[in-house]
Write a structure and sequence with these properties.
35% of the residues lie in helices and 21% in strands. The protein is built from 16 helices and 21 strands. Strands 1, 2, 3, 4, 5, 6 and 19 form a 7-stranded mixed sheet that branches. Helix 1 packs across helix 4, helix 5 runs parallel beside helix 6 and helix 6 packs across helix 8. The structure holds flavin-adenine dinucleotide. The site of flavin-adenine dinucleotide has 36 residues, from helix 1, strand 4, strand 7, helix 5 and helix 6.
Length: 473
Protein backbone atom coordinates (compact mmCIF):
# COMPACT_ATOMS: atom_id res chain seq x y z
CA UNK A 1 0.00 0.00 0.00
CA UNK A 2 1.19 3.52 -0.83
CA UNK A 3 2.35 5.56 2.18
CA UNK A 4 2.68 9.35 2.32
CA UNK A 5 3.34 11.90 5.02
CA UNK A 6 0.29 13.97 4.13
CA UNK A 7 -2.88 13.06 2.26
CA UNK A 8 -4.77 16.14 1.10
CA UNK A 9 -8.41 15.58 0.19
CA UNK A 10 -9.55 18.41 -2.09
CA UNK A 11 -7.62 20.39 -4.70
CA UNK A 12 -9.20 23.80 -4.16
CA UNK A 13 -7.23 26.78 -2.86
CA UNK A 14 -7.13 25.30 0.67
CA UNK A 15 -5.85 21.89 -0.37
CA UNK A 16 -3.40 23.16 -2.98
CA UNK A 17 -1.84 25.69 -0.60
CA UNK A 18 -1.50 23.01 2.09
CA UNK A 19 0.08 20.63 -0.42
CA UNK A 20 2.57 23.15 -1.78
CA UNK A 21 3.69 24.36 1.64
CA UNK A 22 3.98 20.81 3.02
CA UNK A 23 5.99 19.75 -0.01
CA UNK A 24 8.27 22.85 0.28
CA UNK A 25 8.95 21.83 3.87
CA UNK A 26 10.06 18.35 2.85
CA UNK A 27 6.96 16.18 3.29
CA UNK A 28 5.70 13.61 0.80
CA UNK A 29 2.21 14.58 -0.32
CA UNK A 30 -0.71 13.06 -2.23
CA UNK A 31 -3.64 15.21 -3.38
CA UNK A 32 -6.93 13.48 -4.23
CA UNK A 33 -9.89 15.30 -5.77
CA UNK A 34 -13.04 14.20 -7.50
CA UNK A 35 -12.81 16.93 -10.14
CA UNK A 36 -10.95 16.29 -13.41
CA UNK A 37 -8.60 19.25 -12.79
CA UNK A 38 -7.14 21.00 -9.76
CA UNK A 39 -8.77 24.28 -8.72
CA UNK A 40 -11.77 23.37 -6.56
CA UNK A 41 -14.99 25.34 -6.92
CA UNK A 42 -13.69 28.83 -7.49
CA UNK A 43 -10.86 28.01 -9.92
CA UNK A 44 -12.79 25.26 -11.69
CA UNK A 45 -11.59 24.69 -15.27
CA UNK A 46 -9.45 27.83 -15.03
CA UNK A 47 -6.73 26.53 -17.33
CA UNK A 48 -9.05 25.15 -20.00
CA UNK A 49 -12.32 27.08 -19.65
CA UNK A 50 -13.94 27.68 -23.07
CA UNK A 51 -15.09 31.11 -21.84
CA UNK A 52 -13.28 33.69 -23.95
CA UNK A 53 -12.42 36.92 -22.16
CA UNK A 54 -12.56 35.05 -18.86
CA UNK A 55 -11.12 38.05 -16.97
CA UNK A 56 -14.01 40.29 -18.04
CA UNK A 57 -16.74 37.67 -17.69
CA UNK A 58 -15.70 35.56 -14.72
CA UNK A 59 -13.81 38.31 -12.93
CA UNK A 60 -10.40 38.96 -11.45
CA UNK A 61 -11.09 36.62 -8.49
CA UNK A 62 -11.29 33.73 -10.92
CA UNK A 63 -8.06 34.52 -12.75
CA UNK A 64 -6.29 35.14 -9.43
CA UNK A 65 -6.04 31.36 -9.09
CA UNK A 66 -3.79 30.97 -12.11
CA UNK A 67 -0.54 31.50 -10.18
CA UNK A 68 -1.56 28.85 -7.62
CA UNK A 69 -2.55 26.33 -10.31
CA UNK A 70 0.67 26.97 -12.25
CA UNK A 71 2.77 26.41 -9.13
CA UNK A 72 0.89 23.22 -8.38
CA UNK A 73 1.25 21.92 -11.95
CA UNK A 74 5.00 22.62 -11.86
CA UNK A 75 5.48 21.11 -8.41
CA UNK A 76 5.25 17.47 -9.46
CA UNK A 77 3.12 16.73 -6.39
CA UNK A 78 1.24 13.42 -6.77
CA UNK A 79 -2.33 14.24 -7.77
CA UNK A 80 -5.20 11.82 -8.31
CA UNK A 81 -7.94 13.72 -10.18
CA UNK A 82 -11.43 12.26 -10.79
CA UNK A 83 -10.96 10.30 -7.59
CA UNK A 84 -13.11 10.44 -4.49
CA UNK A 85 -12.23 9.40 -0.97
CA UNK A 86 -15.06 7.38 0.54
CA UNK A 87 -13.59 6.05 3.77
CA UNK A 88 -10.87 6.85 6.28
CA UNK A 89 -10.04 4.22 8.91
CA UNK A 90 -8.87 4.73 12.47
CA UNK A 91 -5.45 3.58 11.17
CA UNK A 92 -5.36 6.63 8.84
CA UNK A 93 -5.79 4.45 5.77
CA UNK A 94 -7.97 6.25 3.24
CA UNK A 95 -9.90 4.37 0.57
CA UNK A 96 -10.69 6.02 -2.71
CA UNK A 97 -12.02 5.20 -6.17
CA UNK A 98 -11.53 6.86 -9.50
CA UNK A 99 -14.83 7.86 -11.03
CA UNK A 100 -16.94 5.92 -13.54
CA UNK A 101 -16.86 4.63 -16.27
CA UNK A 102 -13.94 2.56 -14.96
CA UNK A 103 -13.93 2.97 -11.20
CA UNK A 104 -10.58 1.84 -9.88
CA UNK A 105 -10.31 1.58 -6.12
CA UNK A 106 -7.15 2.11 -4.11
CA UNK A 107 -5.94 3.06 -0.68
CA UNK A 108 -3.19 5.08 0.94
CA UNK A 109 -1.81 5.29 4.44
CA UNK A 110 -1.01 8.80 5.62
CA UNK A 111 0.54 10.10 8.81
CA UNK A 112 -1.42 13.35 8.42
CA UNK A 113 -4.73 13.90 6.67
CA UNK A 114 -5.96 17.30 5.54
CA UNK A 115 -9.67 17.63 4.78
CA UNK A 116 -9.90 20.44 2.23
CA UNK A 117 -13.30 19.42 0.94
CA UNK A 118 -14.83 22.90 0.62
CA UNK A 119 -18.46 23.86 0.82
CA UNK A 120 -21.79 22.93 -0.68
CA UNK A 121 -24.74 25.16 -1.46
CA UNK A 122 -27.28 25.38 1.33
CA UNK A 123 -30.42 23.36 0.52
CA UNK A 124 -33.31 25.68 -0.34
CA UNK A 125 -36.49 23.57 -0.23
CA UNK A 126 -39.08 25.78 -1.91
CA UNK A 127 -42.26 24.11 -3.12
CA UNK A 128 -41.39 22.96 -6.65
CA UNK A 129 -37.58 22.95 -6.25
CA UNK A 130 -37.38 19.40 -7.59
CA UNK A 131 -39.12 20.18 -10.90
CA UNK A 132 -36.88 19.75 -13.99
CA UNK A 133 -35.58 23.16 -15.02
CA UNK A 134 -34.72 24.16 -11.45
CA UNK A 135 -31.08 23.96 -10.42
CA UNK A 136 -28.68 25.75 -8.13
CA UNK A 137 -26.74 28.85 -9.06
CA UNK A 138 -23.53 26.94 -8.29
CA UNK A 139 -24.52 24.22 -10.75
CA UNK A 140 -25.27 26.82 -13.45
CA UNK A 141 -21.93 28.50 -12.77
CA UNK A 142 -20.15 25.15 -13.25
CA UNK A 143 -21.82 24.90 -16.70
CA UNK A 144 -20.58 28.39 -17.53
CA UNK A 145 -17.00 27.81 -16.35
CA UNK A 146 -16.55 24.34 -17.82
CA UNK A 147 -18.69 24.44 -20.96
CA UNK A 148 -19.35 28.12 -21.65
CA UNK A 149 -23.11 27.51 -21.27
CA UNK A 150 -25.45 30.32 -20.24
CA UNK A 151 -28.90 29.88 -18.70
CA UNK A 152 -31.92 30.78 -20.86
CA UNK A 153 -32.66 34.53 -21.11
CA UNK A 154 -35.83 34.18 -19.04
CA UNK A 155 -34.00 32.64 -16.04
CA UNK A 156 -35.20 33.72 -12.60
CA UNK A 157 -32.70 33.64 -9.74
CA UNK A 158 -34.07 33.20 -6.22
CA UNK A 159 -32.32 33.51 -2.86
CA UNK A 160 -29.50 35.67 -1.59
CA UNK A 161 -25.78 35.80 -0.95
CA UNK A 162 -22.73 37.04 -2.85
CA UNK A 163 -22.58 34.10 -5.27
CA UNK A 164 -26.13 34.78 -6.49
CA UNK A 165 -25.27 38.36 -7.47
CA UNK A 166 -21.85 37.43 -8.79
CA UNK A 167 -23.33 34.80 -11.10
CA UNK A 168 -26.05 37.16 -12.35
CA UNK A 169 -23.33 39.64 -13.25
CA UNK A 170 -21.21 36.98 -14.95
CA UNK A 171 -24.20 36.00 -17.10
CA UNK A 172 -24.77 39.63 -18.11
CA UNK A 173 -21.07 40.16 -18.85
CA UNK A 174 -21.13 37.07 -21.07
CA UNK A 175 -23.97 38.55 -23.12
CA UNK A 176 -26.79 36.59 -21.47
CA UNK A 177 -29.81 37.89 -19.59
CA UNK A 178 -31.45 37.36 -16.26
CA UNK A 179 -35.19 38.02 -16.12
CA UNK A 180 -35.23 38.82 -12.39
CA UNK A 181 -33.58 38.20 -9.04
CA UNK A 182 -36.06 37.44 -6.29
CA UNK A 183 -34.38 38.42 -3.06
CA UNK A 184 -35.51 35.82 -0.54
CA UNK A 185 -33.12 36.67 2.28
CA UNK A 186 -34.32 36.10 5.82
CA UNK A 187 -34.99 39.09 8.08
CA UNK A 188 -31.90 41.25 8.67
CA UNK A 189 -31.13 42.27 12.25
CA UNK A 190 -29.98 45.93 11.91
CA UNK A 191 -27.98 46.29 15.15
CA UNK A 192 -25.59 43.34 14.65
CA UNK A 193 -25.27 44.36 10.99
CA UNK A 194 -24.12 47.86 11.96
CA UNK A 195 -21.69 46.43 14.51
CA UNK A 196 -20.14 44.11 11.92
CA UNK A 197 -20.02 46.92 9.32
CA UNK A 198 -17.43 48.78 11.36
CA UNK A 199 -15.11 45.75 11.42
CA UNK A 200 -15.75 45.08 7.73
CA UNK A 201 -14.13 48.43 6.90
CA UNK A 202 -10.81 46.67 7.52
CA UNK A 203 -11.33 44.92 4.18
CA UNK A 204 -12.37 47.86 1.98
CA UNK A 205 -11.46 46.04 -1.25
CA UNK A 206 -14.11 43.38 -0.61
CA UNK A 207 -16.78 45.96 0.19
CA UNK A 208 -15.91 47.91 -2.97
CA UNK A 209 -16.16 44.71 -5.01
CA UNK A 210 -19.64 44.10 -3.58
CA UNK A 211 -20.77 47.67 -4.31
CA UNK A 212 -19.42 47.46 -7.89
CA UNK A 213 -21.27 44.19 -8.41
CA UNK A 214 -24.62 45.61 -7.35
CA UNK A 215 -24.03 48.73 -9.48
CA UNK A 216 -23.21 46.54 -12.49
CA UNK A 217 -26.47 44.61 -12.07
CA UNK A 218 -28.41 47.88 -12.00
CA UNK A 219 -26.55 49.00 -15.12
CA UNK A 220 -27.47 45.77 -16.91
CA UNK A 221 -31.09 46.43 -15.95
CA UNK A 222 -31.52 43.24 -13.93
CA UNK A 223 -34.82 43.50 -12.08
CA UNK A 224 -34.61 42.89 -8.33
CA UNK A 225 -37.71 41.87 -6.41
CA UNK A 226 -37.49 42.38 -2.65
CA UNK A 227 -39.91 41.45 0.16
CA UNK A 228 -41.23 38.40 -1.71
CA UNK A 229 -42.94 35.79 0.45
CA UNK A 230 -44.72 32.46 -0.17
CA UNK A 231 -42.44 31.75 -3.13
CA UNK A 232 -43.21 28.62 -5.09
CA UNK A 233 -42.20 27.13 -8.41
CA UNK A 234 -44.68 25.52 -10.81
CA UNK A 235 -44.53 23.36 -13.92
CA UNK A 236 -45.27 19.87 -15.17
CA UNK A 237 -43.26 18.19 -16.64
CA UNK A 238 -40.88 21.22 -16.69
CA UNK A 239 -40.77 24.46 -14.79
CA UNK A 240 -43.05 27.15 -16.23
CA UNK A 241 -43.32 29.81 -13.53
CA UNK A 242 -42.42 31.34 -10.20
CA UNK A 243 -45.17 32.66 -7.94
CA UNK A 244 -44.78 34.93 -4.93
CA UNK A 245 -46.66 37.35 -2.74
CA UNK A 246 -45.44 40.90 -2.31
CA UNK A 247 -47.12 43.45 -0.06
CA UNK A 248 -50.31 41.38 -0.11
CA UNK A 249 -50.53 41.00 -3.91
CA UNK A 250 -49.81 37.77 -5.79
CA UNK A 251 -47.38 37.82 -8.72
CA UNK A 252 -46.25 35.31 -11.34
CA UNK A 253 -43.14 35.31 -13.50
CA UNK A 254 -43.24 32.95 -16.45
CA UNK A 255 -39.90 31.21 -16.89
CA UNK A 256 -38.28 28.07 -18.24
CA UNK A 257 -35.40 28.10 -15.76
CA UNK A 258 -35.10 28.79 -12.04
CA UNK A 259 -31.74 29.04 -10.27
CA UNK A 260 -31.65 28.84 -6.48
CA UNK A 261 -28.97 29.96 -4.08
CA UNK A 262 -29.18 30.36 -0.32
CA UNK A 263 -25.49 30.65 0.58
CA UNK A 264 -22.87 28.03 1.36
CA UNK A 265 -22.40 25.58 4.23
CA UNK A 266 -19.27 23.56 5.07
CA UNK A 267 -18.98 20.07 3.65
CA UNK A 268 -18.74 18.03 6.88
CA UNK A 269 -19.37 14.51 5.64
CA UNK A 270 -15.86 13.17 6.25
CA UNK A 271 -15.23 14.99 9.54
CA UNK A 272 -18.61 13.85 10.80
CA UNK A 273 -18.05 10.21 9.78
CA UNK A 274 -14.64 10.38 11.52
CA UNK A 275 -16.40 11.34 14.74
CA UNK A 276 -14.84 14.81 15.00
CA UNK A 277 -16.52 17.21 17.37
CA UNK A 278 -18.84 19.69 15.63
CA UNK A 279 -20.85 22.67 16.79
CA UNK A 280 -23.66 24.78 15.39
CA UNK A 281 -22.13 28.02 14.14
CA UNK A 282 -24.92 30.49 14.92
CA UNK A 283 -23.44 33.26 12.80
CA UNK A 284 -23.17 31.07 9.68
CA UNK A 285 -26.16 28.93 10.65
CA UNK A 286 -24.41 25.66 9.87
CA UNK A 287 -22.57 22.80 11.56
CA UNK A 288 -18.84 23.11 11.63
CA UNK A 289 -15.98 20.99 13.02
CA UNK A 290 -13.94 22.20 15.98
CA UNK A 291 -10.23 22.65 15.43
CA UNK A 292 -7.22 24.41 16.89
CA UNK A 293 -5.72 27.65 15.54
CA UNK A 294 -3.48 25.36 13.46
CA UNK A 295 -6.64 23.77 12.02
CA UNK A 296 -6.02 20.41 13.73
CA UNK A 297 -9.23 18.69 14.76
CA UNK A 298 -9.64 16.87 18.05
CA UNK A 299 -8.46 13.77 16.19
CA UNK A 300 -4.65 14.01 16.23
CA UNK A 301 -3.14 14.37 12.75
CA UNK A 302 -6.45 15.29 11.10
CA UNK A 303 -6.57 18.87 9.82
CA UNK A 304 -9.54 20.75 8.37
CA UNK A 305 -8.80 23.71 6.10
CA UNK A 306 -10.71 26.03 3.79
CA UNK A 307 -14.47 26.42 3.58
CA UNK A 308 -14.96 22.89 4.94
CA UNK A 309 -14.04 24.36 8.32
CA UNK A 310 -16.32 27.42 8.01
CA UNK A 311 -17.18 29.66 5.07
CA UNK A 312 -14.48 32.29 4.64
CA UNK A 313 -13.70 32.51 0.90
CA UNK A 314 -10.86 31.43 -1.35
CA UNK A 315 -8.06 33.62 0.00
CA UNK A 316 -8.77 32.61 3.60
CA UNK A 317 -8.94 28.98 2.41
CA UNK A 318 -5.45 29.29 0.93
CA UNK A 319 -4.08 30.85 4.10
CA UNK A 320 -5.62 28.20 6.33
CA UNK A 321 -4.05 25.49 4.14
CA UNK A 322 -0.61 27.04 4.52
CA UNK A 323 -1.07 27.46 8.28
CA UNK A 324 -2.05 23.79 8.68
CA UNK A 325 0.98 22.68 6.63
CA UNK A 326 3.33 24.54 8.98
CA UNK A 327 1.99 22.67 11.99
CA UNK A 328 2.14 19.37 10.09
CA UNK A 329 5.79 20.07 9.26
CA UNK A 330 6.47 20.84 12.91
CA UNK A 331 4.85 17.61 14.08
CA UNK A 332 6.81 15.69 11.42
CA UNK A 333 10.04 17.17 12.75
CA UNK A 334 10.81 19.16 9.58
CA UNK A 335 10.77 22.53 11.35
CA UNK A 336 10.89 23.62 14.97
CA UNK A 337 8.31 25.63 16.87
CA UNK A 338 10.11 28.98 16.48
CA UNK A 339 10.37 28.57 12.69
CA UNK A 340 6.71 27.54 12.48
CA UNK A 341 5.69 30.62 14.46
CA UNK A 342 7.88 32.96 12.38
CA UNK A 343 6.43 31.63 9.13
CA UNK A 344 2.88 31.64 10.47
CA UNK A 345 2.87 35.22 11.79
CA UNK A 346 2.23 36.99 8.45
CA UNK A 347 -0.25 34.29 7.41
CA UNK A 348 -2.35 34.79 10.55
CA UNK A 349 -2.30 38.58 10.03
CA UNK A 350 -3.55 38.24 6.44
CA UNK A 351 -6.07 35.66 7.52
CA UNK A 352 -7.57 38.00 10.13
CA UNK A 353 -7.85 40.74 7.47
CA UNK A 354 -9.60 38.34 5.10
CA UNK A 355 -12.08 37.43 7.83
CA UNK A 356 -12.87 41.01 8.82
CA UNK A 357 -15.87 41.38 6.51
CA UNK A 358 -17.23 37.86 6.91
CA UNK A 359 -19.55 38.51 9.90
CA UNK A 360 -20.96 41.51 7.99
CA UNK A 361 -21.66 39.35 4.92
CA UNK A 362 -23.22 36.65 7.09
CA UNK A 363 -25.49 39.23 8.74
CA UNK A 364 -26.32 40.92 5.43
CA UNK A 365 -27.38 37.69 3.74
CA UNK A 366 -29.28 35.61 6.31
CA UNK A 367 -30.56 32.40 4.70
CA UNK A 368 -34.15 32.48 3.42
CA UNK A 369 -36.80 31.39 5.94
CA UNK A 370 -37.64 28.34 3.77
CA UNK A 371 -34.20 26.88 4.54
CA UNK A 372 -35.35 26.30 8.12
CA UNK A 373 -39.11 26.29 7.88
CA UNK A 374 -40.42 25.23 4.47
CA UNK A 375 -44.17 24.93 3.98
CA UNK A 376 -45.67 21.48 4.58
CA UNK A 377 -45.97 20.63 0.88
CA UNK A 378 -42.29 21.28 0.10
CA UNK A 379 -40.13 18.21 -0.47
CA UNK A 380 -37.23 18.31 1.98
CA UNK A 381 -35.50 14.97 1.26
CA UNK A 382 -35.19 14.77 -2.51
CA UNK A 383 -33.74 11.26 -2.48
CA UNK A 384 -36.67 9.72 -0.62
CA UNK A 385 -39.37 12.26 -1.53
CA UNK A 386 -40.18 13.23 2.07
CA UNK A 387 -42.07 16.49 2.61
CA UNK A 388 -41.72 19.07 5.37
CA UNK A 389 -45.23 18.09 6.54
CA UNK A 390 -44.18 14.45 7.00
CA UNK A 391 -41.09 15.53 8.94
CA UNK A 392 -43.16 17.82 11.17
CA UNK A 393 -45.53 14.90 11.85
CA UNK A 394 -42.57 12.69 12.83
CA UNK A 395 -41.24 15.44 15.08
CA UNK A 396 -44.64 15.76 16.77
CA UNK A 397 -44.52 11.99 17.39
CA UNK A 398 -41.30 12.55 19.33
CA UNK A 399 -38.50 12.39 16.74
CA UNK A 400 -36.07 14.79 18.37
CA UNK A 401 -33.50 15.20 15.58
CA UNK A 402 -32.44 14.14 12.07
CA UNK A 403 -31.43 10.63 13.19
CA UNK A 404 -34.85 9.84 14.65
CA UNK A 405 -36.59 11.56 11.73
CA UNK A 406 -34.60 9.35 9.37
CA UNK A 407 -35.83 6.23 11.17
CA UNK A 408 -39.47 7.34 10.99
CA UNK A 409 -39.61 8.90 7.52
CA UNK A 410 -36.49 7.73 5.58
CA UNK A 411 -35.45 11.41 5.16
CA UNK A 412 -31.65 11.33 4.88
CA UNK A 413 -31.47 7.64 4.01
CA UNK A 414 -30.93 8.07 0.29
CA UNK A 415 -28.08 8.62 -2.10
CA UNK A 416 -26.84 11.91 -0.57
CA UNK A 417 -26.97 10.57 3.01
CA UNK A 418 -28.69 13.67 4.33
CA UNK A 419 -26.31 16.26 2.89
CA UNK A 420 -29.33 18.08 1.44
CA UNK A 421 -31.94 17.55 4.13
CA UNK A 422 -30.37 16.93 7.54
CA UNK A 423 -30.10 20.58 8.52
CA UNK A 424 -33.70 21.27 7.42
CA UNK A 425 -34.89 18.20 9.34
CA UNK A 426 -32.97 19.41 12.40
CA UNK A 427 -34.55 22.86 12.16
CA UNK A 428 -38.05 21.37 11.89
CA UNK A 429 -37.38 19.12 14.89
CA UNK A 430 -36.14 22.10 16.91
CA UNK A 431 -39.18 24.23 16.04
CA UNK A 432 -41.60 21.42 16.91
CA UNK A 433 -39.89 20.78 20.25
CA UNK A 434 -39.57 24.50 20.97
CA UNK A 435 -35.79 24.33 21.39
CA UNK A 436 -32.86 26.07 19.73
CA UNK A 437 -31.28 24.48 16.68
CA UNK A 438 -27.93 24.14 18.43
CA UNK A 439 -29.65 21.93 21.01
CA UNK A 440 -30.47 19.32 18.35
CA UNK A 441 -27.92 16.53 17.92
CA UNK A 442 -26.06 16.73 14.62
CA UNK A 443 -26.59 13.61 12.51
CA UNK A 444 -23.45 11.54 12.14
CA UNK A 445 -22.42 10.51 8.62
CA UNK A 446 -21.32 6.92 8.06
CA UNK A 447 -18.68 5.44 5.82
CA UNK A 448 -18.68 5.01 2.90
CA UNK A 449 -19.45 8.72 2.51
CA UNK A 450 -19.74 8.39 -1.27
CA UNK A 451 -21.70 5.76 -3.18
CA UNK A 452 -19.41 2.82 -4.03
CA UNK A 453 -19.96 -0.67 -5.36
CA UNK A 454 -19.28 -3.81 -3.37
CA UNK A 455 -16.49 -4.57 -5.84
CA UNK A 456 -14.79 -1.25 -5.03
CA UNK A 457 -14.98 -2.01 -1.34
CA UNK A 458 -13.59 -5.49 -1.88
CA UNK A 459 -10.74 -4.25 -4.07
CA UNK A 460 -9.87 -1.18 -2.01
CA UNK A 461 -6.48 -2.73 -1.35
CA UNK A 462 -6.46 -3.48 2.31
CA UNK A 463 -6.94 -6.58 4.40
CA UNK A 464 -9.33 -5.03 6.87
CA UNK A 465 -11.41 -2.22 5.39
CA UNK A 466 -14.51 -3.06 7.37
CA UNK A 467 -14.61 -1.51 10.76
CA UNK A 468 -16.86 -1.65 13.72
CA UNK A 469 -19.07 1.42 13.72
CA UNK A 470 -19.70 3.23 16.94
CA UNK A 471 -23.47 3.57 16.79
CA UNK A 472 -23.53 5.69 19.90
CA UNK A 473 -22.06 8.74 18.06
C1 LIG B 1 -20.75 25.74 -6.29
C2 LIG B 1 -19.83 26.81 -5.74
C3 LIG B 1 -19.46 27.88 -6.54
C4 LIG B 1 -18.60 28.89 -6.03
N1 LIG B 1 -18.27 29.95 -6.82
C5 LIG B 1 -17.50 30.95 -6.32
C6 LIG B 1 -17.16 32.09 -7.09
O1 LIG B 1 -17.53 32.20 -8.23
N2 LIG B 1 -16.41 33.07 -6.51
C7 LIG B 1 -15.96 32.96 -5.23
O2 LIG B 1 -15.27 33.87 -4.74
N3 LIG B 1 -16.25 31.88 -4.48
C8 LIG B 1 -17.02 30.89 -4.99
N4 LIG B 1 -17.35 29.82 -4.21
C9 LIG B 1 -16.76 29.72 -2.88
C10 LIG B 1 -15.32 29.25 -3.10
O3 LIG B 1 -15.37 28.16 -3.94
C11 LIG B 1 -14.66 28.86 -1.83
O4 LIG B 1 -14.60 29.96 -0.95
C12 LIG B 1 -13.26 28.32 -2.05
O5 LIG B 1 -13.16 27.60 -3.23
C13 LIG B 1 -12.92 27.45 -0.90
O6 LIG B 1 -11.79 26.69 -1.19
P1 LIG B 1 -11.59 25.25 -0.57
O7 LIG B 1 -10.21 24.84 -0.94
O8 LIG B 1 -11.96 25.28 0.85
O9 LIG B 1 -12.68 24.32 -1.27
P2 LIG B 1 -13.06 24.04 -2.77
O10 LIG B 1 -12.48 25.02 -3.70
O11 LIG B 1 -14.54 23.89 -2.79
O12 LIG B 1 -12.40 22.63 -3.08
C14 LIG B 1 -12.83 21.47 -2.44
C15 LIG B 1 -12.51 20.30 -3.33
O13 LIG B 1 -12.66 19.10 -2.57
C16 LIG B 1 -13.14 18.11 -3.44
N5 LIG B 1 -13.74 17.04 -2.62
C17 LIG B 1 -14.73 17.16 -1.70
N6 LIG B 1 -14.96 15.97 -1.12
C18 LIG B 1 -14.12 15.09 -1.68
C19 LIG B 1 -13.88 13.69 -1.51
N7 LIG B 1 -14.57 12.96 -0.60
N8 LIG B 1 -12.95 13.09 -2.28
C20 LIG B 1 -12.24 13.81 -3.19
N9 LIG B 1 -12.41 15.14 -3.39
C21 LIG B 1 -13.33 15.77 -2.65
C22 LIG B 1 -14.11 18.83 -4.34
O14 LIG B 1 -14.27 18.14 -5.56
C23 LIG B 1 -13.43 20.19 -4.53
O15 LIG B 1 -12.67 20.22 -5.71
C24 LIG B 1 -18.16 28.79 -4.71
C25 LIG B 1 -18.53 27.70 -3.91
C26 LIG B 1 -19.35 26.71 -4.41
C27 LIG B 1 -19.75 25.53 -3.53
Amino acid sequence: MKRVDALIIGAGPGGLSAALRARDLGLSVLVVDENPRAGGQIYRALRESPVREAARILGADYLAGKALLDRFAASGIDHLPRTRVWQIGSDNVACFSSLAPNPKPGSVEARFIVLATGAQERPFPLPGWTIPGVMTVGGAQILLKTAGLLPPDDAVLIGGGPLLYQFAEQVCQAGGRVQAIIDARGPIAPMPLLGHAVRALRDPALLQRGARLLAALRWHGVRRVGDATAIRISGDPRVDGVHYTRHGAEHTLETSCVLLHAGLIPEVNLSSALGCEHFWNRQQRAWQARYSIWRESRRAGLFIVGDGGGIAGAEAASLSGSIAALEIARQAGKIGEPERDDLAGPLFRQWRRRLAARPFLDALYPPPAECFSPPDEAIVCRCENVTAGEIRRAARLGASGPRQIKALTRAGMGHCQGRFCACVAAALAAQTAGIRLDEVAMPRSRFPVKPVTLEEIALAGSEDRFQRTDFRG
